[in-house]
Design a protein that fits this description.
The chain is mainly β and 195 residues long. Helices cover 8% and strands 46% of the residues. The longest helix has 15 residues.
Length: 195
């Protein structure tokens, strides 16, 4: 008798059900890893898009389609890598199953001055973008470092071992100028000089 009542209850429950899904399935929103980014021409930034269901849970899978609203300002490739092209603002969007998330991209003018600091055993930022003829100032902390440029045409004079001082170098030719601190293996940086 108990089995018969339980069976009727299951059948009744199925009969009263609807075609509506009972869980949080399907993409409800697409969230981006950044709401806004600021770049200068030539710089890149990696964006990521995450599909979420109605409950805010992450959904795996699904194909992401990337798009820039204005490719004259910034482009985006199939993996979400944004490349700044020229000054202005545009939106980069990611679409997953018809739902769209976006990031505002602002591209500013290339600076004529920049600062590289040395927290710990690193150069920050790793890549410094500067306009041709501009000056990069290296800010040395108490721990001694040096800045030794890769030997190539247009590279400025090296900065020998020093500490507690700021020293500038002017870059007169376009190109990429890698450098490192020979006192600390793996401590590297680069200056990208653009027109």
């Amino acid at each position: 008798m108990k089995r018969w009542i339980a069976g009727v209850a299951v059948v009744a429950g199925l009969a009263c059900g609807s075609d509506e899904p009972t869980g949080n399935s399907g993409v409800a929103t697409v969230s981006m890893n950044a709401n806004a980014i600021v770049l200068i021409p030539g710089q890149t930034e990696q964006l990521a898009a995450t599909a979420k269901d109605a409950g805010g849970n992450t959904i795996s899978g699904g194909t992401v389609t990337w798009r820039s609203a204005n490719t004259a300002i910034a482009t985006v490739n199939g993996t979400g890598l944004v490349t700044a092209v020229s000054t202005g603002q545009t939106d980069v969007s990611a679409t997953i199953d018809g739902k769209v998330g976006s990031t505002r991209v602002t591209v500013g003018a290339v600076p004529t001055t920049a600062l590289v600091s040395m927290p710990g055993l690193s150069f920050t930022p790793f890549t410094t973008v500067i306009k041709q003829g501009g000056t990069v100032t290296f800010e040395f902390p108490q721990l001694p470092h040096n800045v030794i440029f890769e030997r190539k045409t247009g590279a400025p004079q090296d900065i020998q071992v020093t500490s507690n001082v700021r020293i500038g170098r002017t870059f007169t030719a376009t190109g990429l100028y890698p450098y490192d601190c020979t006192l600390h293996p793996g401590m590297k940086g680069e200056v990208n000089v653009v027109p």
